Amino acid sequence: MTSRNFTLQSIGTVHSARSEPIDDGWDEIAAHVQLDADRFGPEALFGLDSFSHAEVIFLFDRVPDEKIETGARHPRGNKDWPLIGIFAQRGKNRPNRLGHTVCRILKVDGLKLYLEGLDAIDGTPVLDIKPVMDGFLPRGEVKEPDWSKELMRGYWV
After folding, report:
1. Which of 79, 82, 111, 143 is surrounded by the most beta carbons within 10 Å?
2. For the ranges 17-31, 70-84, 135-149, which has the lowest average pLDDT?
3. Residue 146 is inside which H or E element, if any?
4. Do both 54 and 103 map to the same domain?
């Protein structure tokens, strides 16, 4: 199989009180997505406020090429945790630099989507927004290793 290249265009930008990619405390950070007014009108967000949550797909645009991981690493560099393949963790140093977070929708105001729990820093390009629908949530039990639960202890609070 050969790799293929794609071109994506951002739909908007994250505006956040956080400008550095610090690992924890994301629920404390006020954030909103501002849609690109040259491409969208307020109708692009019509009805989104009737959902409680949205999925935001964004680009880790400030990760330099030399930091991209294609193999395995210890999450957060913690040698107490096992060596884990990049596709078995959610770190920012991913091959395509894609980030994805499920956020609580606080309000929609014109071209602005106000969110709680968006773990993207100020100026981050947003690639897509989707409503969270119960029918797309995992079916059956969700399983995860202990190291990932430990990693997430302070992530949101």
Report:
1. 111
2. 17-31
3. helix 146-151
4. yes
